[in-house]
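Researcher: Structure for this, please.
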Amino acid sequence: MSALFQPYSLRDVTIPNRVWMPPMCQYSAAPEGPLTGTPADWHFAHYAARATGGTGLIIVEATAVSPEGRISPYDLGIWNDTQVEAFRRITRFLVEHGTVPAIQLAHAGRKASTDRPWKGGAPVGPQAHGWQPVGPSAIPFAEGHPVPTELTKTQMEEVVGEFADAARRALAAGFEIAEIHGAHGYLIGNFLSPHSNHRTDEYGGSYENRTRFALEVVDAVRAVWPDDKPLFFRVSATDWLEEGGWTPDETVRFARELHAHGVDLLDVSTGGNASGVRIPVGPGYQVPFAARVKAETPMPVAAVGLITDAEQAEKILANGEADAVLLGRELLRNPSWARQAAREAGAEVRVPDQYHRSV
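Model: Predicted structure, token format:
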């Protein structure tokens, strides 16, 4: 029996299979005007295709909790009701086709205000719809990046409130699962790592201090997110630094604390907080980090990182390394990956009536 096509339940939400789509920015929203950060036709078509392709869970790309929290001027946001209404069109379609809709709530921190990747991804200023980034400390991400403004405690409280407000809007938009983005060198990850957090107050220095802001965000979101709906957290399990960065040991410790604070699943990625590091990229290269969290904590995990074929994904689940797999690039290349994998495994996956000839 295929492990990939077994349902998976968290709280009162049941996901029909273990083939999940991770957040992947499309950089396709309006950068200015009344529809800034609002999902458009591209977003609908993009997510709808993966739903009709049989994907069990779709986590909508990093969605900013404020205009300043976007990675680029072209990112999605969920700070106003116009955005909520546009998201409803997407979530309705996903639900109608058997896919659970999730959303990643994000703040880009010191890596905000950059151009689209196919335009080079360099920082942009006001002349290109940009703004001044913020972070836990006045330390730029890399050479050529602006020095972020160090957040005051009052500003940090405001950001925590923005995450909670975004969660309320996500619920109104029809999402069943919320994920807090704490990975890839964005704001929450900036606080976690001593590489980017040089604060000397109660939010910097020790492990307890560096995780304080993240846990405050988690508590604020969990307080407004319904008890019957799951909450995920995405983490970079390592900065890939030999010293002075966030470590796998800290990730394991943090996973236990997140679980105690009401997080239902850890979405385990790596890297993104330190520029110029060497990452040993290869098939499943991030899976061992998820496997360790699963083995050493009560926290369910999802694995990501160059998972491309059904046999590989099946082994990850069968070996107990993760509870689900997140296919990024492969789902970009092949929106119907889940349906094809199910057919090969002799498993069932929902197929739209319009596509019945493809079964």
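Researcher: Any notable elements?
Model: DSSP finds eleven helices and twelve strands in the chain. The longest strand covers residues 57-64.
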